[in-house]
Structure formats: C-alpha cells, structure tokens
C-alpha cells in the first residue's frame, strides 16, 4: 500500500531512519567516552596494616605456653602479643613466665621482649627483665633464659635488686632444683654482695 | 671462770652490715640463705670472715635474727683479732658469740677459751670456759 503523499508521511519516514541512528549514537557514547576506571587501584586497602607489616605474618594475641616439670612444678609463659617466625621460634612482647613450685613458693619473670624456642622448650627473655619471688626477692637483669618444662633459669649477666635481707647484687643467678630434688633454690654466683640495714631498737 | 676484756672500739650497731661472698643460695621454700666461699661480714670497722655463713631470717619481724658463721671464723675489730670454729652474730643486738677453741690476740698477749661473747656496742668481750691467758714476755 503506497505511502500517502504529503509532507507528514515523508517526515515520519525520515524519522524512522534518523531516530534509531541517534539512539545508536547515544548508546555508543555510553561505552566509548566512559571514565577510565581501573578497578584494581581503586579498591580501598587498609593503609595502617600495610605500614606496620602486621598483615604479612599472622599475629597471635595473648598467647599462652605452659609446661609441668616431673616434680609437679608449673611453668606458664603468657605474653601480650606473639609473632611466630618462619624459623619456628616465636617472638613475644610483654612476657611473663610464672614458676609455681609444688611446695607453694612462686617466682615470676617479666620482660618486654622474649623469644620462645618451642623445639628446645626454652624462652630467652631480654629488655628489662624482672625477677620477683614469693620469698621477697625483686631483682633485675638484662638477659635471662628459662626452661619451659623444667625449673632451670639462668641469667646471662649480673643481677641486682633487693631481697628481704637488703640490697643485693651478684655476678650471675640460677634458679634450679636442689640435689635432693625437693626444694627449689636461687643460686647467686660470681661474687655476691648484700647490704643489710639493721633496724634495731 | 670468765674474763672480761675490751675488744675493739664501741661500734655503731645500726651501721649497714655488708656481706660479700663467692656465692649465695636461697632456698625458696623457707627462704634460708646460705653464703659460701670466703664470706666476709663487715660492719663499721668489724670484719668477720668465714667459709660458710647461714642467715637465719625471721619472717615475722622482717629482719636478720642471726648470721651463723661456721668452718673456722676470724673476727677483726679495730686492732684486736679473734679466731674460733664458729661465730653467731646478731646484727640487731650487735653481739657476736664465738665458740669452739676461741683464740683472742691483743697486742702481745693472747687468751684462749671455749666461748667468747663480744658486745660490739660497748666494745667488751666476755670469755668463758677454760680461759687461759698467754702473756708473751717481750725480749725473749
């Protein structure tokens, strides 16, 4: 059926061609001129984690190691944070090693940094090591090595501080079980000096 | 019978007592402390040397009741010296009790006895138990 003559039909015929083309042009701009968005760099990473590097190795908070000796004494090592290393050792911070003897006496070892060698069941404590015992001794030293499954503590250098008897310093200190295996003793060697102030009358 | 002699000047018994030794072992159960290896107890000008000293400590009053020096003790105070097998020194009272063939030398003369109690504060020594005085005649 031929198209009716007249301007109106001609305009409609042209529009039927032009309008789809315009639509097509509009659609294409959607993809051609869109902003160059690179999805990878836009993702918001947590910046503070990346700086401290914590994100790389997994971190254990409030870890807890403990061991009991054959005599029944308990050694518990707790820390605020621990970073297990590839080598199997564990670096810990704000560490406390608590030695509870079966005869009831107790010795606490605190330090800001420590390295626990799980394989050898030993912990090396450094930086401001403090030794407090239930018999009233409060001593400090630089580096201290303590066993985890036995009462065997040794300071690598001089120890100083005070005890019930007065101020004390010594070349070296060991905490070990006495030969008969019943009692635990603190052994100071390498020259010991104590100053006691009598509070008489 | 006993003898009373002067021994060392009178001593301030509240002066700090210094104990030096090669090693010290502290038993954690009852807190007794044992010094071994040329132990020297010093207070003021009094020196007490012994190979082994046990500290008897009274938990209640938080102070040393006495220091038991054994294994051959020499005590020097001022110009006098005394030797014995054992000495018990209590810093609070300022008294040293030496026992076991005590030998006290004072200048030229020497006294021996079984027991000697030295009061540091008053500077006197009380000897008892078979006291013998040996006076060296000079010029022999």
From TrEMBL, chain A:
GO CC aspect terms: plasma membrane
Membrane-traversing stretches: 12-33
Keywords annotated in UniProt: Membrane, Transmembrane, Transmembrane helix
GO molecular function: lipopolysaccharide transmembrane transporter activity
InterPro entries: LipoPS_assembly_LptC-rel (IPR010664), LptC (IPR026265)
Pfam name, any one: LptC
Protein name as annotated: Lipopolysaccharide-assembly, LptC-related
């Amino acid at each position: 059926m031929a198209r009716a003559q007249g301007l109106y039909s001609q305009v409609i015929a042209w529009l039927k061609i032009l309008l789809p083309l315009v639509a097509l042009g509009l659609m294409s701009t959607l993809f051609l001129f869109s902003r160059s968005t690179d999805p990878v760099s836009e993702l918001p990473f947590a910046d503070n984690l990346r700086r401290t590097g914590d994100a790389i190795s997994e971190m254990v908070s409030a870890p807890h190691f403990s061991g009991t000796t054959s005599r029944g004494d308990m050694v518990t090592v707790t820390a605020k944070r621990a970073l297990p290393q590839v080598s199997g050792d564990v670096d810990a911070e704000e560490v406390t090693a608590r030695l509870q003897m079966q005869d009831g006496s107790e010795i606490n070892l605190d330090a800001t940094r420590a390295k626990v060698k799980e394989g050898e069941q030993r912990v090396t404590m450094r930086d401001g090591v403090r030794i407090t015992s239930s018999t009233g001794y409060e001593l400090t030293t630089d580096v201290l090595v303590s066993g985890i499954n036995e009462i065997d503590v040794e300071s690598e250098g001089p120890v100083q501080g005070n005890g019930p008897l007065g101020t004390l310093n010594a070349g070296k200190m060991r905490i070990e079980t006495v030969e008969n295996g019943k009692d635990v003793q603190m052994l100071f060697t390498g020259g010991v000096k104590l100053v006691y102030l009598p509070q008489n009358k | 019978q006993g003898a009373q002699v002067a021994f060392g000047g009178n001593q301030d018994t509240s002066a700090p007592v210094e104990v030096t030794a090669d090693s010290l072992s502290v038993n954690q159960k009852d807190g007794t402390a044992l010094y071994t290896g040329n132990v020297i107890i010093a207070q003021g000008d009094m020196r007490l040397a012994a190979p082994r000293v046990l500290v008897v400590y009274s938990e209640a009053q938080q102070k040393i009741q006495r220091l038991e020096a054994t294994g051959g003790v020499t005590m020097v105070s001022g110009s006098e010296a005394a030797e014995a097998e054992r000495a018990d020194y209590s810093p609070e009272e300022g008294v040293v009790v030496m026992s076991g063939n005590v030998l006290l030398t004072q200048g030229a003369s020497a006294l021996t006895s079984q027991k000697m109690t030295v009061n540091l504060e008053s500077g006197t020594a009380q000897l008892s138990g078979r006291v013998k005085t040996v006076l060296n005649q000079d010029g022999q």
